[in-house]
Each structure stands twice: as structure tokens, then as C-alpha cells.
């Protein structure tokens, strides 16, 4: 396997953010967009979009192989993260389905 070390460094709010594999296809059909295209879109909508998520815990829905690939949810902050990335610790009860009654109640 050949390791691809291509990256683009963006200056955002006085910080440098390294975007690895910027040319990696994210959407390939029917719209063709790369990872850096998606990053630039996020930057363009950030002023309006951040109002809804500012100071809230986040769950990331990740698509390692692009949007047409299989997704997974990442709830924990990565161990290797920039020192400026805020994190919060949550402690709460999750509902657990124990059968049809629980499933119906949770889906209502």
C-alpha cells in the first residue's frame, strides 16, 4: 500500500487546519465533489450553520469511503486532536428497548 501524504493547510480564524487527501472523492455520483470541496462548502455556510450547534456536544457521522460508502458514528473526540478543540464529558441515561412495548414507545 502506498501512503499518500498530500494535504492542504487552511488558515481559519488564526489557526492552521490540515486537510488530508483534499482531492479524495466525497460525492462521486451524480455530483462529483472532493473532500476539499466539502470543506469549502462548510466554510461558506458556517456563519449560519454554527448558530444551531455552537456549545453543543457533537456526534460525527463519518464516511471514510465517501458519501456513497458505509457510514459510522463517532461519539468520542479523537485522542490525537488539536489543543484548541473543545470537548465535554456527558453522563446520562440512554433508553434501552426491551421489547415491542419499548420499541413502540420510543418510536412515537
Protein described:
With 108 residues, the protein is of the alpha+beta class. The protein has one domain. The chain is built from two helices and six strands. It has helices at residues 35-53, 100-107; strands at 7-12, 15-20, 25-27, 33-34, 60-62, 72-74. It has a two-stranded antiparallel sheet with strand order 1-2. Strands 3-4 form a two-stranded antiparallel ribbon. Strands 5-6 form a two-stranded antiparallel sheet. The relative contact order is 0.10.
How would you summarize what this structure contains?
The protein is an alpha+beta fold.
Topology:
Layout lengths: L6 E6 L2 E6 L4 E3 L5 E2 H19 L6 E3 L9 E3 L25 H8 L1
Antiparallel strand pairs: 1-2, 3-4, 5-6
What would the keywords be for this entry?
single chain; 108 residues
- Domain tally: 1
Largest beta-sheet characterization: 2 strands, antiparallel
Radius of gyration: 18 Å
Number of strands: 6
Note the run of SSEs as H and E: EEEEHEEH
Percent strand: 15-25%
Helix content: 25-40%
Number of helices: 2
The side-by-side strand order for the widest beta sheet comes to 1-2
Amino acid at each position: 500500500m502506498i501512503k499518500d501524504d498530500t494535504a492542504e493547510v487552511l488558515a481559519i480564524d488564526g489557526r492552521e487546519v490540515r486537510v488530508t487527501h483534499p482531492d479524495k472523492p466525497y460525492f462521486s455520483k451524480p455530483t462529483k465533489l472532493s473532500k476539499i470541496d466539502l470543506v469549502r462548502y462548510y466554510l461558506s455556510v458556517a456563519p449560519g450553520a454554527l448558530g444551531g450547534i455552537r456549545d453543543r456536544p457533537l456526534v460525527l457521522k463519518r464516511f471514510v469511503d465517501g458519501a456513497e460508502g458505509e457510514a459510522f458514528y463517532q461519539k468520542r473526540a479523537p485522542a490525537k486532536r488539536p489543543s484548541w478543540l473543545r470537548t465535554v464529558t456527558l453522563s446520562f441515561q440512554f433508553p434501552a428497548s426491551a421489547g415491542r412495548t419499548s420499541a413502540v414507545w420510543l418510536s412515537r
